[in-house]
Write a structure and sequence with these properties.
- The chain is an alpha/beta fold and about 575 residues long.
- Helices cover about 45% and strands about 10% of the residues.
- Strands 1-7-6-5-4-2-3 form a seven-stranded mixed sheet, sandwiched between helices. The chain has a four-stranded antiparallel sheet with strand order 8-9-11-10.
- A hairpin with a 7-residue loop joins strand 8 and strand 9.
- Helix 7 crosses helix 18 and helix 20 packs across helix 22.
- The longest helix has 30 residues.
- It is globular.
Length: about 575
């Protein structure tokens, strides 16, 4: 079976670069509007209309309508100048064609404007969110019956949610340990206390019979953190410097923001070194944990990345889980968060033929995500869902626990309300509905959605081979775990600074040319030193720069899997590359 036949089913779920499915999509769009109109007409029919026919025929009314119509057309005209991200020619950033189910789900819910902060204003939308979270939980391997979570504005907020919860539980553990030490006079070890885990916490709470007031007064989150730091220092006999956050050098910028926002201080943000393949180095992680504990500082969380922003690398999540589970068995429970904002949806390939496109290390890493405490996903990336839609998931209720707040105008008795469980107050239900309808139609398994994911990785492989054959100076960054491809343009033996200048110049050519959209990324030796050295050694180059400039191509458009698209666009891309090289 050819590629075009294989992707025929998936093509029904996208509008198409030439609006090929426009007639059908228009009818479904109109059906959504008609249902909404009928619903509004059917409710409270006895109420008088504030907009009678006589008013709608008045000249002033008609004039106002025409002004609105003109401005709508003006906005539409303006938007035709927007970047055409739907076309297969767009391989720039992590955005692409939206799926029809996602757009219809988003639009249908947007009309009702639910605020998922509370069931008071999202009676149905809240249930849709629960079901959509369960679908995503099942996709990454969590037990949907136990997993919890919610939708956010994006990956940054989802990452913040993990820090919030990791801090919540560590604060509980430290408060209990501090109270016990002050009560008994025993020396206080903040590292052991901070990593005791919920099971040991519950046991000690029952045994100690400490009151909730005692614990609250020892909380650095609920009380004065400077006073609590002084008490910890006094009880331990060492100056308390607080916890650290261990994040690999390939991290997203949101993690440094988190250290800042949550008052940890940027000094507490410890990057973990990467290996020659741009992935988290396990020896470096072990060393960082040992260093932190040696300095009397607990580890607030260990973060691993499943699909980096720069080049799509997938950290060895399985090995990180193994390491942290060994710590847990020895009584040191460390929170593990997987930032799978990009790669999380690749889990849909697991368990079926679609996973054939994944290298074995990537397959093992994705399958291990289910073992982490919490996970970030971005449906508005590889989920083909409209902005803004991120998701935060945890494996169980204990991992979802966080600080409690009061809002007298919201019914606290509603068990399923998430308003007190989310950093964001108001949250649109549109993103949850878009994911829900995607899951109900495409399903997040290997036969449908997973097949689309496999097609994007196949497309990256096809592009890589064509690039190697068509441009002798193309130096591909390897390995490539996902559907992102990065390359530099270098002559054998030349200095890195020279190839950087050539690559940057070619990128500028693409940026000023509407024929194709690519992106650029710059890796620094501070974070990617070993990987850059390996890349430059590959063509016998000279290391005379602290950074590597790369052209970055993101293959998430589903139509790159189509043979006709490939045959048409690949030669044109190579021709444009040649033009910009000269």
């Amino acid at each position: 079976m050819n590629v075009e036949a294989q992707t025929c089913g998936e093509a029904a779920y996208f509008l198409g670069p030439k609006s090929e499915n426009a007639s059908w999509f228009r009818s479904e769009f109109q059906a959504v509007l008609d249902q909404w109109f009928d619903w509004r007409r059917s409710l409270f029919g006895e109420d008088p209309s504030p907009i009678p026919d006589t008013m709608r025929l008045q000249p002033d009314f008609l004039a106002e309508r025409e002004i609105i119509a003109q401005k709508v057309r003006e906005l539409g005209d303006l938007m035709t100048g927007e970047v055409p991200k739907y076309t297969p020619r767009y391989i720039g950033h992590m955005v692409s064609e939206l799926s029809i189910p996602a757009m219809l789900g988003h639009f249908a819910t947007l009309l009702h404007n639910p605020n998922n902060t509370s069931r008071d204003v999202a009676r149905v939308s809240g249930v849709v969110e629960d079901e959509a979270i369960a679908m995503l939980a099942g996709m990454i391997g969590y037990d949907p019956e136990l997993a919890q979570g919610h939708f956010t504005s994006g990956g940054t907020l989802a990452n913040f949610e993990s820090v919030w919860r990791a801090r919540y539980r560590m604060d509980h553990f430290l408060a209990l340990g501090l109270c016990l030490a002050e009560k008994t006079g025993a020396a206080f070890d903040p590292v052991s206390a901070a990593h005791m885990g919920w099971t040991r916490y519950q046991e000690l709470t029952r045994e100690s019979r400490l009151s909730d007031t005692d614990l609250r007064q020892a909380s650095g989150v609920l009380g004065n953190p400077f006073d609590i730091a002084a008490r910890i220092s006094a009880a331990s006999g060492k100056v308390w410097r607080g916890p650290v956050l261990l994040v690999p050098g390939n991290k997203h910028f949101s993690w440094l923001k988190a250290a800042n926002v949550f008052g940890l201080g940027e000094e507490a943000f410890w990057p973990v070194a990467l290996d020659t393949q741009g992935r988290l180095s396990l020896p470096a992680l072990k060393s960082a944990i040992a260093r932190a504990h040696g300095e009397g500082r607990p580890v607030l969380a260990v973060v691993s990345v499943a699909g980096t922003t720069e080049a799509g690398e997938i950290d060895p999540v399985d090995a990180v889980c193994d390491l942290l589970e060994d710590y847990t068995r020895s009584g040191t429970d460390i929170w593990h968060h997987v930032d799978a904002a990009w790669g999380g949806f690749l889990c849909s390939m697991l368990g079926g033929d679609a996973e054939r496109v994944l290298a074995r290390p990537a397959r093992r890493a994705l399958a291990a995500i289910r073992r982490a405490h919490s996970v970030t996903l971005d449906p508005h990336k590889l989920g083909y869902v409209p902005y803004a839609c991120g998701a935060f998931l945890v494996r169980d209720a204990d991992s979802y626990a966080n600080s409690s707040f009061s809002a007298p105008y919201i019914d606290r008795a509603a068990a399923n309300d998430r308003w007190m469980m989310t950093l964001e107050g108001s949250r649109s239900g549109a993103g949850a509905a878009a994911v829900w309808l995607t899951g109900k139609t495409l399903t997040f398994g290997p036969q449908r959605f997973g097949a689309i994911m496999a097609g994007t990785i196949d497309s990256r492989k096809y592009f890589a081979e064509a690039l190697r054959s068509g441009e002798v100076l193309a130096r591909l960054l390897e390995p490539t775990d996902t559907n992102i491809l990065c390359f530099s343009l270098a002559k054998p033996g030349e200095p890195l600074s020279v190839s950087n200048a050539r690559t940057a110049r070619v990128y500028s050519g693409f940026a000023s040319d509407p024929a194709f959209s690519v992106s650029k990324t710059v890796l620094t030796t501070e974070d990617y030193g070993e990987m850059i050295n390996a890349h430059v050694d590959g063509y016998g180059g000279q290391m005379d720069s602290g950074s590597l400039v790369l052209i970055r191509c993101v293959f998430m458009n589903p139509f790159w899997a189509n043979e006709k698209i490939r045959a048409s666009l690949m030669p044109r891309f190579l021709a444009q590359l040649s033009i910009h090289m000269n």
